[in-house]
Amino acid sequence: MSSGKINVSVENIFPLIKKFLYSDHEIFLRELISNATDATLKLKHLTSIGEAKVEYGNPKIEVKIDKEGKKLHIIDQGLGMTLEEVEKYINQIAFSGAEEFLEKYKDTAKDSGVIGHFGLGFYSAFMVASKVEIITKSYKDEPAAHWSCDGSPEFTLVPTDKKERGTEIILHIAEDSLEFLEEGKIKGLLTKYNKFMPIPIVFGTKQEALPKPEDAPEDYKTEYKEVENIINNPNPAWTKQPSDLKDEDYKSFYRELYPMQFDEPLFHIHLNVDYPFNLTGILYFPKLAADLQIQKDKIQLYQNQVFVTDNVDGIVPEFLTMLKGVIDSPDIPLNVSRSYLQADGNVKKISNYITRKVSDKLKSLFNENRADFEAKWNDIKIVLEYGMLSEPKFYEKAGDFVLYPTVDEKYYTLAELKEQLKASQTDKDGKLVVLYASNKEAQHSYIEAAKEKEYEVLLLDSPIVSHLIQKLEADNENLTFARVDGDVIEKLIQKDDAQLSKLSDEEKESLKSVIEAIVPKEKYSVQLEAMDSKSAPFLITQPEFMRRMKEMSQTGGGMFGMGNFPEMYNLVVNTNSDLATSILNSENEEVKASLVKQALDLAKLSQGLLKGEELTSFVKRSFETLR
């Protein structure tokens, strides 16, 4: 028997571990399972190179609860430790056995899957245990060892008679941590952190149906047998080669990741790179609504199949955090407790790689089956538009596949759009004007006015469209976007053939005075325009610049304070309309006022601006004219 003090540089490291190093106590199980996995994978490597003269077999890791004895057991069949190795690796905190192993076998162990880095994971057990025991036997022909510690620097280490190779960790659960003796709690932690560990993890048993005999009678009742309950999938899809997987395999893995998600993913992107860093994973494009209030934290970060976090900011470009899936890399730098990222040059390289890989996949999908890509556009556009605004490298490639749909469900790339519109929608100053609507129903009358002139109208309805078109205008000379309700169509795309007004300048001034006396000045600016006599007599528009700045301010950006700026509209009066003439020529002031109010309400109604008391009054007044 030997005893002594654990070799640490402070009098008692355990309170420090418990309070500062691991803020989340539940990760103790992740760390101990990771250690057991390391021990097993190390043995696998040593047997494969002939250094360990033992049978590797089909090892597993067992987790057992002894509720009555208030103990939790973690048992592996890995390489185990000798008395000397226990002294070295357990009693000298922060001396990482995994790190030493990788250094010793660096030429052959690069792809062994060994997880550990810091040598502190084992001591996380003291966050929940008042006493910890290790019973271990090395694959070497040496006596087994029994180590015990009660959470102070004092320990005992004695030989023991364990016969089987491997290690058993026994946690005597502390009174303030008895929740970790509950089956549901442990199952939840194993599922959260160890669902895809590379070694089978056994937790309890389950009933498995026996095959039905061929000669079974009609009233045969299914028989069951009790089998070990393996709670993990040691070979998840992302660890396999894309060539070995079919589309259904990817969908099946998606359901495994998100069992409560009932919609199928639109498509997937398989990440697989081994230089200049190691990274694997699968990203899925789910169906997304056209808003930015999308729940993030759906991409899971793993390190050698050990779950780390679902906060992947920094690794995954921000615009892709709206996706789902898995990323696994041993090269992502974590803090000592493997709980969050540390700043590192590799992180930016990984982020850039993911951006490029996603861009290439989108371009490939677009080229291979454009019709299918167009059909999925509304479900993915918010991610791509956000990517264009937030990620310069993505913006550079986006022109190859980002689409601009019309209200008639035709889809163009920006290059195609320019070519399609240049003949008809270039104004008198040589500027190409791209008309768009944000709501096909609400802006129907304006869209129809544009169509009458055979103009194309895009449907751009995402919440960040104002930011996007601002960027496109800045990067494309002689290109401007104008929403169809921003002005009368003749002014949105000004041509040389200006419409003549049938009213004289004096008549126009008189008409404007009449209307301004009735229309609220604080909300409407009256403008007289000579338009086609068949066009609407009164039209409400909102200046493009004011509306766009207001929208950008509301979603972050634009001019400071514009989001709270009061709504202002232009009331455009068609001087060539019969109504304009009727208002001007009427000698009855009440009739004039009635005509103006009714026309204004009709214009407001077409813009969805007539509401509440004003709408009630309008309906009542309209019914009265039918009597």
TrEMBL record:
Belongs to the heat shock protein 90 family. InterPro entries: HATPase_C_sf, Heat_shock_protein_90_CS, HSP90_C, Hsp90_fam, Hsp90_N, Ribosomal_Su5_D2-typ_SF. SUPFAM superfamilies: ATPase domain of HSP90 chaperone/DNA topoisomerase II/histidine kinase (SSF55874), Ribosomal protein S5 domain 2-like (SSF54211). It comes from Flavobacterium profundi. ATP binds at residues 31, 35, 76, 81, 96-97, 167, 338. One of its GO terms (molecular function) is unfolded protein binding. PROSITE patterns: HSP90. Keywords: ATP-binding, Chaperone, Nucleotide-binding. Pfam families: HATPase_c_3 (PF13589), HSP90 (PF00183). This is Molecular chaperone HtpG. CDD domains: HATPase_Hsp90-like. NCBIfam families: PRK05218.1.
